Automatic annotation (TrEMBL):
Biased composition regions of type Low complexity, renumbered to the chain: 40-52
Database matches in PANTHER family: PIGGYBAC TRANSPOSABLE ELEMENT-DERIVED PROTEIN 4
Organism in which the protein naturally occurs: Dermatophagoides farinae
Protein name stated in the entry: PiggyBac transposable element-derived protein domain-containing protein
Region (Disordered), start-end ranges: 1-81
Domain PiggyBac transposable element-derived protein: residue ranges: 111-464
Membrane-spanning parts: none
Residue spans of biased composition, Acidic residues class: 53-81
Pfam families associated with the record: DDE_Tnp_1_7
Compositional bias of kind Basic residues: 1-10
Length: 474
């Protein structure tokens, strides 16, 4: 999320039409009819879980997870004698990474090749196996004579790619419902879709689409999608190396159906959905992802839920000198000190009621433009007032007030920590915004299908960034 006193600019859509993924064969014979599944092409975009860090109300617990966090302050636990005036320049860890694609690829790489680095043939073959397995189960169950599942034929990798390719085109061509894509009337007739796959076959594959089998641990709440998440994240981390700056934020995937770990966030437009924790680069390349599984989820036995989320997402990138920008849902003095021990810097907004915050900073009343900053070791905590007070924490910055010009050309003095936070924190928000413009259809009665299509959109978005870096295209 941003810390801005004015409105933020929306990035213009980057057309996905020019980024075609699949080379679809021509002159395919229509395949026999199958059952309907009731999916619409209405776009229900992934809405970033954003809240204003400038509001005083944001200093309380948010997002319906107050039971997961135990970072509130206690008068007897503050070690305020250790906080000193900011004089020492913090120790900056050397960054030993190199941003970009890890392998050398030719500058004329095709878009489909870039996409296949993340969503590879191995994953496609697995999805084919899982889908055919589910179709076999559905066929063996009691079905009526009219059920088209009786005529099911096993799919293969080639047909699965066509199915996914059609889903991509649906993101560019908006229709009122799924069946309108195969309509033959004057208004909605679009020959593309019927040319490559029949409506009944598309609906049959969609109904049988699966990402697990009987060998998976069903006690895991995410077992229906876990295999896909792990495969995609592994591929991403094997092919791409981020730069020094990272951002960690959460997103909300709209879901109104019944689900144990569905989140209710009353101050959001969607209100109900699946909560995702994401780690990204400042330009929006998603590096790691965690799906919130509901109360009782433990990522680290010895720390709070928020601390465990950061530790889990950052685990592949610790001890490399990265700087991670996060909001006040996660930050605390304990987290900052813990990451310092793992050669990782932290920058973010800070809630006033966190444990071990310096009282002199939290309790001091400020006039507009004033600030107060304290240091304990390499941890700097401060407060600055513009329209309202903002608390910040950093293990990377030497505090400075610098001249800053806003989008209207008005100059003012602002802390360097806040300027950098606004610059590098927007990665997850940018990715969600760009994926929403041409998202694949995912209105379905099964939560894991909707989540799969969100991951599929993420693969397309990440592969576009890889494609542009390798080909040096703007």
């Amino acid at each position: 999320m941003y810390l801005r006193s004015g409105k933020s600019k929306r990035t213009a859509p980057e057309s996905k039409k020019s980024f075609q993924i699949f080379e679809i064969e021509q002159n395919i014979d229509e395949i026999s009819s199958d059952e309907s599944t009731g999916i619409n092409s209405e776009n229900e975009s992934c809405e970033s879980s954003m809240s204003s860090d400038l509001e005083e109300s944001n200093m309380t617990e948010s997002d319906g997870e107050s039971t997961e966090i135990d970072e509130s302050t206690n008068e007897d636990e503050d070690a305020n004698d250790d906080w000193l005036d900011v004089e020492k320049i913090p120790e900056i860890f050397d960054f030993n990474g190199c941003e970009g694609v890890k392998q050398n690829w030719p500058s004329n790489i095709a878009p489909f090749e870039a996409f296949s680095l993340i969503f590879d043939n191995v994953l496609v073959e697995k999805i084919v196996k899982w889908t055919n397995h589910k179709a076999k189960i559905l066929r063996s169950s009691r079905t009526s004579r009219q059920s088209t599942m009786r005529m099911w034929k096993d799919t293969d990798a080639q047909e699965m790619k066509k199915f996914l390719g059609v889903c991509i085109v649906m993101g560019n061509v908006k229709m009122p419902s799924l069946r309108h894509y195969w309509a033959t009337n004057f208004i909605y007739n679009h020959p593309f879709f019927g040319r490559f796959i029949s409506r009944n076959r598309f609906e049959a594959i969609l109904r049988c689409l699966s990402f697990y089998d009987n060998t998976d641990d069903t006690s895991n709440r995410l077992h229906k999608i876990k295999n896909v998440v792990e495969h995609i994240v592994t591929n991403i981390q094997e092919i791409y190396s981020p730069g020094r700056n990272l951002s960690l934020d959460e997103a909300l995937l709209l879901w109104r159906g019944r689900l144990f770990f569905r989140q209710y966030i009353p101050n959001k437009a969607a209100k109900y959905g699946i909560k995702l924790y994401e780690l990204s680069t400042p330009n929006g390349f998603i590096l790691n992802i965690l799906i919130y599984e509901g109360k009782g989820t433990v990522y680290n036995q010895s720390s709070s839920h928020a601390h465990g989320v950061v530790q889990k997402l950052m685990d592949p990138y610790l001890n490399k000198g990265h700087v991670v920008y996060i909001d006040n849902f996660y930050t605390s003095v304990n987290l900052a000190e813990s990451l310092l021990q793992q050669k990782t810097h932290i920058v973010g907004t800070l809630r006033k009621n966190r444990k071990f915050n310096p009282k002199e900073v939290i309790n001091k009343k400020l006039a507009k433009g004033e600030s107060v900053w304290k240091r304990k070791g390499n941890v700097v905590v401060g407060k600055w007032k513009d329209k309202r007070e903002v608390c910040m924490i950093s293990t990377y910055h030497e505090f400075k007030m610098v001249n800053w010009k806003n989008s209207r050309g008005i100059e003012s003095m602002k802390p360097n920590i806040i300027i950098d936070y606004n610059q590098f924190m927007a990665g997850v928000d940018r990715a969600d915004q760009m994926m929403s413009y041409y998202s694949t259809p995912r209105k379905t009665v099964r939560w894991y299908i909707k989540l799969f299509f969100h991951l599929f959109d993420m693969c397309i978005w990440n592969s576009m960034i890889i494609f542009k870096k390798v080909t040096e295209m703007n």
